[in-house]
């Protein structure tokens, strides 16, 4: 006999899939995908929904998003914990291991990839005021003089350009869905770089704009909530929202997204990010840029990727989905990922730095190392 407990509806399965995806890789799968293997669980699609169970699962999904946002922005109290002390053994400071890093890069072309928020600029309450220091800009200028350098960010490309203001860099905005090359040579000469422009999600622009307007409207009653239009993706900010209202805000976002199965959601530092379901992320952007620079299948390149957020894991992590010959960082076995964090976090990065000021120190040492290693005997 069928009881309420064993009634598993299509909707419940979809919610379960979305929850599992949200927990494992922050991905909301298209609602149409119900694995056949799960049908055997019940084999009774179309029977009345168990509304309480559905509600509980939907609530669990919202809680999973919130837990994930919390995990991305843990409190400082944990920074000196035992956990951090053992974590650092596996993710040593890139400053303390600098010599080892540059030794591995010997004879190879270093290419530098940098996330923006939390990596080049400190995290602040107002996303429009996430300025980087002059010192950081000067160091970045030096870096770009010696190595191809790209900013890879969830931000809108124009907005991040206005913060960084360096025309000699590559920019990959909207989580890598909006890529351009330098418009100026780092050495002030002619710009011989081939023009690079890649926008794999252009067809989603009208939908993103539509969802932006809906979210603005739906979230306006939640004090502190902000919705940011990052061109090919959106961010819903929780940082200035009372934690008691986080679940309600996340629920509003969930309800809007039900109507847009072509969009998916990821969690960052007190932010929910909404973007197209295309197979494109910061890792793919890194591969694309290496390829544009002529380093496809090359052993002579040493990419260094520095980032602080969950979305940077796509670049740290092994990926061989689209281009099996190109693997990201660890799997290339020749580059490194550096996580910027004061606390222990699960990561595929090999090294760590504590904050943007340590990132600046690391980059400055890289410039000094390059300068000293290219000094010719005649110029000494
Ligand atoms: O890939 P990123 O460059 O790290 O972009 C991720 C998000 O960064 C920004 O939000 C974060 O920084 C804000 C300013 O410090 C902070 O207020 C917010 O809480 C952080 O999540 C940016 O505003 C978002 O649009 C990006 O998605």
TrEMBL record:
Keywords: Hydrolase, Stress response. GO terms for molecular function: trehalose-phosphatase activity. Pathway: Glycan biosynthesis; trehalose biosynthesis. Its EC number is 3.1.3.12. The keyword Glycoprotein does not apply. Its cofactor is a divalent metal cation. Pfam families: Trehalose_PPase (PF02358). One of its GO terms (biological process) is trehalose biosynthetic process. It catalyses: alpha,alpha-trehalose 6-phosphate + H2O = alpha,alpha-trehalose + phosphate. Coiled coil: none annotated. Belongs to the trehalose phosphatase family. Removes the phosphate from trehalose 6-phosphate to produce free trehalose. Trehalose accumulation in plant may improve abiotic stress tolerance. This is Trehalose 6-phosphate phosphatase.
């Amino acid at each position: 006999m069928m009881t309420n407990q064993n009634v598993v509806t299509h909707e419940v399965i979809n919610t379960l899939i979305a929850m599992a995806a949200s927990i494992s890789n922050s991905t909301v799968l298209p609602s149409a995908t119900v694995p056949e293997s799960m049908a055997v669980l019940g084999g009774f699609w179309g029977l009345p929904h168990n509304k309480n169970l559905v509600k509980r699962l939907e609530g669990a999904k919202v809680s999973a998003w919130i837990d994930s946002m919390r995990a991305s922005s843990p409190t400082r109290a944990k920074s000196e914990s035992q956990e951090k002390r053992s974590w650092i053994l596996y993710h040593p400071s890139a400053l303390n291991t600098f010599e080892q890093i540059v030794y591995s890069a010997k004879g190879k072309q270093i290419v530098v990839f940098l996330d923006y928020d939390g990596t080049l600029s400190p995290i602040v309450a107002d996303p429009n005021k996430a300025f980087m220091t002059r010192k950081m800009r000067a160091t970045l200028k030096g870096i770009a003089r010696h190595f191809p350098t790209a900013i890879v960010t969830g931000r809108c490309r124009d907005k991040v350009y206005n913060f960084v203001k360096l025309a000699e860099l590559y920019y990959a905005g909207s989580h890598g869905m909006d890529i351009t090359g330098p418009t100026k040579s780092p050495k002030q000469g002619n710009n011989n770089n081939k023009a690079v422009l890649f926008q794999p999600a252009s067809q989603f622009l009208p939908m993103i704009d539509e969802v932006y307007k809906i979210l603005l409207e739906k979230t306006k009653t939640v004090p502190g909530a902000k919705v940011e239009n990052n061109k090919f993706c959106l961010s819903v900010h929780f940082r200035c929202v009372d934690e008691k209202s986080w679940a309600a805000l996340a629920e509003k976002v969930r309800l809007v997204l039900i109507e847009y199965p072509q969009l998916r959601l990821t969690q960052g530092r007190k932010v929910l990010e909404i973007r197209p379901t295309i197979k494109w992320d910061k890792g793919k952007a890194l591969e694309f840029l290496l390829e544009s620079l002529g380093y496809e299948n090359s052993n002579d390149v040493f990419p260094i990727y520095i980032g602080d957020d969950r979305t940077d894991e796509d670049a740290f992590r092994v990926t061989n989905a689209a281009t099996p010959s190109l693997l990201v960082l660890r799997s290339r076995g020749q580059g490194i990922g550096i996580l910027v964090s004061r606390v222990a976090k699960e990561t595929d990065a090999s090294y760590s730095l504590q904050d943007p000021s340590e990132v600046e120190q690391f980059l400055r040492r890289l410039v000094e190392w390059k300068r000293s290693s290219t000094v010719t005997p005649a110029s000494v």
